[in-house]
From TrEMBL:
Organism: Alkalihalobacillus trypoxylicola
Keyword Transmembrane in record: no
Pfam families: MerR_1
Cited CDD domains: HTH_TipAL-Mta
InterPro entries, alphabetized: DNA-bd_dom_put_sf, MerR-type_HTH_dom, MerR_fam
Gene Ontology molecular-function annotations: DNA binding; DNA-binding transcription factor activity
Record protein name field: HTH merR-type domain-containing protein
SMART domains associated with the record: HTH_MERR (SM00422)
Domain HTH merR-type: residue ranges: 1-70
Record keywords, A-Z: DNA-binding
The UniProt record lists the keyword Transferase: no
Domain of life: Bacteria
């Protein structure tokens, strides 16, 4: 028989962890020495090994407690729970991979010298986390080719275009800070760059449908889904002013 310290040293667990397991009721030493100290033996070792095995395949301590304390749970009935447990672990793995990818992407942006604030960072991470939900929204609100074009953009191209957009955002913030008017050439160049990003995202043969897409955009209700947005209301207003100036210039030239 071993004291809690001796048992912990042999099993690699701290006395604090063993006491915690006792408080949860999943590993309770039945014997004590004459001084009232807990004593652990082969029975406790077998229970601990079962706990560690179940933890290894992803069961929570609460689930382990239920398995150990429920006499009706046989090895056969336990085996029936494994497919569900596998699905849970696969989902967790996918979430972890997604989180790691997001971290690497943010580090890449910082390494490229793109200044990030909380608004931009939150938008980026939200967009990556809820990409599937956003694609579903697009499929629901847009028809045919337009929906598939925006949902089928390759991930690497999407990251590239996001990065280019962030560089433009940096320039827009500077133009606003320097109070550069919308009719200035450097301001109008912003819209040219944004248009180029849009054209990179769609196939060349789809450009002829731009009028139809514009009608679909006007028919959607943006409030139905809160898309992450890099831009502040001030920056959006500035871009809208640039667009109006360029449209007017186009009409005057025509």
């Amino acid at each position: 028989m071993y004291t809690i310290g001796e048992f912990g040293a042999k099993t690699g667990l701290s006395s604090r962890t063993l006491r915690f397991y006792e408080e949860l009721g999943i590993l309770y030493p039945k014997q004590r020495n004459q001084n009232g100290h807990r004593l652990y033996g082969l029975e406790e070792l077998a229970t601990l090994q079962r706990i560690q095995s179940l933890k290894f395949i992803g069961y929570s301590l609460q689930e382990i407690k239920e398995i150990l304390s429920n006499e009706k749970i046989t090895l056969e009935s336990f085996a029936n729970t494994l497919p569900v447990q596998k699905k849970i672990l696969v989902h967790k793995r996918e979430e972890l991979n997604q989180a790691i990818e997001a971290i690497e992407y943010v580090q890449d942006l910082l390494n490229d010298g793109i200044p990030l604030d909380w608004r931009i960072l939150t938008s980026l991470l939200y967009s990556m986390e809820f990409e599937e939900e956003q694609n579903e929204w697009i499929k629901e609100h847009f028809e045919g080719e337009m929906a598939t074009i925006f949902t089928d953009i390759p991930k690497e191209l999407r990251k590239k275009l996001d990065k280019e957009t962030l560089f433009i955002l940096v320039d827009v913030k500077k133009l606003i800070r320097d109070q550069v008017p919308a009719h200035a050439p450097e301001a109008q160049q912003i819209l040219v760059r944004l248009t180029d990003i849009f054209l990179q995202a769609i196939p060349k043969e789809a450009i002829n449908n731009l009028d139809e897409w514009e009608n679909q955009l006007e028919a959607t209700q943006p409030d139905d889904f809160d898309f992450p947005n890099f831009w502040t209301s001030e920056e959006e207003a500035y871009l809208e002013e640039i667009t109006k100036v360029m449209e007017q210039n186009y009409k005057d030239e025509g």
